[in-house]
Amino acid sequence: MVTMMSLNRATSIFFYFINEKIWKFSLPILTLLIVIVMTIGTRTILSTVPYYTYNSALDMYTIKSDSNILPAYYNVIYFMAFAVSLSVFLNIISVIRLKTIQSKISTVERNLLLVTIFSSIIQCFAAANTFVLQLDPSRTSMLGQIAQVVLPFASDFLTISQPYVSIFLSSKVRAGFMQMYLKRYAATVTSMGFTKTGDWKSGAASRSTSHVTRF
C-alpha cells in the first residue's frame, strides 16, 4: 500500500494534469496484478498445514509447518525488498521534482507527499526488522529475539499508521480530531505537531487558546 501511495504521489507531481485519469484506469489493474503476483509467489503455502509451537526462550507461540515454505518466504522477502526500494526511489525523485515546480503544485499535494514519506520510513523500519529475522532464523541472538518481539507491532503499525501520521503532520486534522473526541485538550494538542496544513477554528477552540496565551 505504501508503495502504491508513493507511486500515486509521484504521478501527481510529474503528471498532475492527468493524474486522476491515470489512476482511474490503473488502480484496478495494479491491485489485481499485486494479488496475482503474491498468490503465485506464495502458492506453496496454500497446501500446508501449519501448527503452533511454544517458544520458551521468548515465552510466546510461533507458527510452524512441516512443509517446505522457504521458497514462498523468500519470494515475500524479494517482493518486500523491491517494494521498499521502489518507494524510496519514488519519494526521492518526487522531492527533487517538487523543488523545480513549486509554483505548480498545491500545498495539499506537498503535504500528501510528506505523509507518504513518513509512511515510507515506517515501511523501511518494518522491512529492516524482517531482514534481521532473515539473518537470524533460529532467533539465538539478542537482536533476533528483539526483532521477533517487534515484528507483530511493526506490521500492525505499518498497516494503521496513516491516521496517526496525518494527525501528527496536519494541524487541521489534529484540531478536528481533538474537537471531535477530546475537546478538553484541543487547544494544547492543536499547537503541537510537525507542520501546518491550514486554518481550522471553532468557538470553543478559540476561547481555550486565548486562555492559554494569557497564562
From the structure above, extract its key features:
215 residues, mainly alpha, 2 domains, two-stranded antiparallel ribbon, 71% helix, globular, disordered C terminus, membrane, transmembrane signaling receptor activity, Serpentine receptor class gamma, transmembrane helix, 7TM_GPCR_serpentine_rcpt_Srg
Describe this structure in words.
This protein has 215 residues and is mostly helical. The protein folds into two domains: 2-169, no CATH class; 175-214, no CATH class. It is 71% helix and 5% strand. The protein has helices at residues 2-14, 19-41, 70-100, 107-135, 142-169, 171-181, 186-190, 203-214, and strands at 51-55, 60-64. A two-stranded antiparallel sheet has the order 1-2. The model is unreliable at 194-215 (pLDDT under 50).
Q: Please list the strands of the largest sheet in the order they lie side by side.
A: 1-2
| Average pLDDT metric | 75
Please give the largest β-sheet. 2 strands, antiparallel
Count helical runs: 8
Strand content: under 5%
Reading the helices and strands in chain order gives: HHEEHHHHHH
Number of strands: 2
Membrane topology: Multi-pass membrane protein
Subcellular location: Membrane
Pfam family, one: Srg
Organism: Caenorhabditis briggsae
Brief summary of the model shown:
The chain has 215 residues and is mostly helical. The protein has eight helices and two strands; from the N terminus they run ααββαααααα. α1 packs parallel to α3 (70-100).
How is the topology of this model organized?
Layout: H1 2-14, H2 19-41, E1 51-55, E2 60-64, H3 70-100, H4 107-135, H5 142-169, H6 171-181, H7 186-190, H8 203-214
Antiparallel strand pairs: 1-2
